[in-house]
Amino acid sequence: MAIQIVTEPVEKTETIKTIYARRAVRKYKDKPVDKKLIEQVLDAGRMAPSAMNKQPWQFYVLTNKETIHSFSSEIAAVMTKGALKSGVSGIAQLLKAASGLLHLSHGIDLHAIKDPVFYGAPVVIFLTAPRDNEWASLDVGMCAQNIMLAAKSLGLDTCPIGFGKYVEKTKIFSRLHVPASEEVKLAIILGYGDESPEVHERTRGNQLFID
């Protein structure tokens, strides 16, 4: 398949421009986000479609800087310990994950910063859903995309953090007050970005019109 840089849309509606402008941002200004703006992006998430309209998502929001750093450190520790305890069969995969956590291809050396998971963002949103809902991952994915696009339209930046789900294995997980019936699917960081990432290449030619 040919891989090309995604081009600007011909029809530049506000929605399409926001989709093309959104980036995963991993560097943030030391500037708090007003609670009303956080509520606004969560409301956009709530407007996502869901199977049988069950709206399975719950949001657990952190805004305290030291609390965010504590969770970041605990998640990083869990990943490192997991790699060391996994044994020969699983160690390659976990080491790869841990290595990606501590030194990413983006050129960011996470050993050198205080927040190795959430990149110093002023807001962290954990998204959960019921453990017994087989469609919840799809629903939460759509909800998360709504949140990130709404944030961009409001002058904020975001990044989805898959490692956020490992918060369940930390010693301080209880501080989130997530009931046992729910599981953490994803975390999203939110704030005023302090970088402008270039668009990544996109695969083209991966569509097939059947009729």
Which features characterize this protein?
globular, four-stranded antiparallel sheet, two-stranded antiparallel ribbon, alpha+beta, NADH Oxidase, 211 residues, 36% helix
Low-pLDDT segments, ≥5 res: 88-92, 107-112
- Report the end-to-end length measured between terminal Cα atoms: 21 Å
Q: Let me know the CATH homologous superfamily of the domain at 22-64 and 117-195.
A: NADH Oxidase
> Which structural class matches the secondary elements?
alpha+beta
Q: Strands of the largest sheet, in order across it? A: 2-3-5-4
How is the biggest beta sheet arranged? 4 strands, antiparallel
CATH topology of the domain at 22-64 and 117-195: NADH Oxidase
- Identify the overall geometry: globular
* Mean residue pLDDT: 87
Describe the structure.
The protein has 211 residues and is an alpha+beta fold. The chain has five helices and six strands, in the order βααβααβαβββ. It has a domain of 122 residues: NADH Oxidase (3-Layer(aba) Sandwich), CATH 3.40.109.10. Helix content is 36%, strand content 16%. α1 packs across α5, α2 packs across α5 and α3 runs antiparallel to α4. The longest helix has 21 residues.
